[in-house]
Design goal:
Layout: E1 2-5, H1 10-18, E2 22-25, H2 31-40, E3 44-47, E4 61-63, H3 69-79, E5 99-101, H4 112-117, E6 121-123, E7 130-133, E8 140-143
Parallel strand pairs: 1-2, 1-3, 3-4
Antiparallel strand pairs: 5-6, 6-7, 7-8
Bound molecules: zinc ion.
């Protein structure tokens, strides 16, 4: 199951990517472009826009009810229970499939305490972010050496997708 998320769902898009889902999220896309990409790439539309979902070409959609990302995530996973990928595999920023790397490649690219306490690291080959698994939780953490990419374009409200907790 591949998704395309509207501009209001940046945080949800990141969470889904961390779970391994292929999620297209570009807050500069307008409704027509979202529709075209969804049809071209056979992506399920995730949206909070009740007007948008009434458009005939937007039939393959999930209308996201909650404004809270955790509830949004639960709704998506409940709607597609057989679709959840088994492991974390995509960059939350750019949707690239992550590669495992040797631990020493993470040296000097993550905080020292992280390097000392973790064994398994992954890297995004596109934006070079480093990922690792949290020790006490199953949360995925990352160290962001780069500044967030600014959203520009349509002037629609974009979530700040760099504020992931
Ligand atoms: Zn990336």
């Amino acid at each position: 199951m591949k998704f395309i998320a509207d501009a209001m769902l940046g945080k949800l898009a990141k969470r889904l990517r961390l779970l391994g889902f292929d999620v297209l999220y570009d807050c500069t896309l307008d409704d027509n472009e979202i529709l075209r990409q969804a049809l071209d790439q056979e992506r399920m539309i995730l949206t909070r826009d009740s007007g948008f979902v009434q458009r005939p070409l937007a039939q393959r959609h999930l209308f996201v009810i909650s404004g809270h990302v955790q509830e949004q995530l639960q709704q998506v996973l409940a709607a597609f229970p057989d679709q959840a990928p088994l492991h974390f595999s995509r960059c939350s920023e750019c949707n690239t499939v992550l590669d495992w790397i040797d631990k020493r490649e993470a040296l000097d690219r993550v905080p020292q305490y992280v390097y000392e306490q973790h064994e398994d690291f992954m890297q995004c080959s596109t934006c070079e972010r480093i990922y690792w698994k949290g020790t006490h939780t199953r949360r995925i953490l990352r160290f962001n050496m780069n500044k967030p990419v600014p959203c520009s374009g349509t002037g629609r409200s974009c979530e700040n997708i760099d504020q992931m907790k």
